[in-house]
Amino acid sequence: MKVAVVGAGLAGICATKQCLDYGLDVTTFEKTNTIGGTWVYTDYVGEDDFGLDVHTSMYQNLRTNFPKEIMCFPDYDFTGPQQSYVSANEVLQFIKKYAQEFQVEKRIQFRREIVRIRPKATSKWEIMVRNLMNETIEIQIFDAVMVCNGHYSVPRTPEFRGLDLYKGKTLHSHSFRSADVFKVDTIKRRWNIQGETVLVIGGASSGTDVAYFVSKVAQKATISTHDSKRSFPSEIHKKPDVKEFTENGVIFEDGSREDFSVVIFATGYLYSFPFLSMDCGITVDDNFIQPLFKHTINIKFPTMCLIGMPYLVHPPLICYLQIQLFLKFFTGAKTLPSTEEMMRITNEEMEIRWKNGLARKHAHMMGVDLLGDYYADVCNLAGLPPVKPFMMEIYRQNQRNLTRDSVKFREIFGIFFVNMSH
């Protein structure tokens, strides 16, 4: 049976390896010239030499917001670095080592862009592939498709009243690489030229990191977050949500107003599958992907899955479990519930989220309250051993600590989880 894997990032490499373990004929398509996906750092932003938007959202000095002890695959430990909160490059090397050890690269076609995927009447998939090296188009047929294109490459920028009036600079954290551009150098100081005043909108991990780096070099760094309990380093000024923009700054929800020369949107990303035809039956409404059974299997066409869509999770672990779930059903090792049963289960799970006040954009959010049950469901359906308790315990403690000062916590206590894991 022939399986197509879209993307050679962390999820795609894991999917390719697991397909090989199941004895499947797998081909992985990657539009860049290397593996690693979003973990591949580059100074460039915008388009690459092939006219494609740069995929990565990595910035300089990025360290993981999860310790490496829970950044491993169940079948492959994260060895090497002593520090628990590892750099982006160390994660990339982990992915490359995993791919090399299991000879995954032999199955990857690099510089291949997926133009269109659509189902055929014969219960197969037609995939149109563009070879970026010679601009040729090829049609290939597969029995199954595993979509592993990630969800940290298409910036999400909320609409704000007055944003079109704002005359300062704006960028999304997707295009942030270094805070050096906000430095006040010696010459500027000599002429009494003030540095940048920067507002970061969004208080999650990337927003906190960006604000921290900017605070070291800019005249002033401010972060806007709706989490009133969240604490930040003293050099970062904390403000509530932005109500609207003005010509030179913003008005916050508490009625206060400030001027800023730069606004950075650390407001997350959009799920995007431009290569999926409407015939695939997948829709995305404010980041709510439908219809997915257990956040991964296309209910209308269960020989297609989307890997790694949930967030606030253990990324390698959830990819591995979802891949195993899909392959168990695809190979016939397990029997998939009926279409009606999958829809019923999915609708009931979503209704619980809506009743608990979650918005559609949080449809695939997990976190401490939901993740354990999700893992248990997937392991039970796939006939896999339960997730080891220490994985959830480290996850819970990590999430509690990240509500403090994420950057300084990772810098000071990075070694703690190494000791704890032993």
UniProtKB/TrEMBL annotation:
Organism: Pseudolycoriella hygida
UniProt-recorded name of the protein: Flavin-containing monooxygenase
GO molecular function (one): flavin adenine dinucleotide binding
Known EC number: 1.-.-.-
Cofactor(s) this protein cannot do without: FAD
SUPFAM superfamilies: FAD/NAD(P)-binding domain
Pfam families: FMO-like
Keywords: FAD, Flavoprotein, Monooxygenase, NADP, Oxidoreductase
Similarity remark: Belongs to the FMO family.
Keyword NADP attached: yes
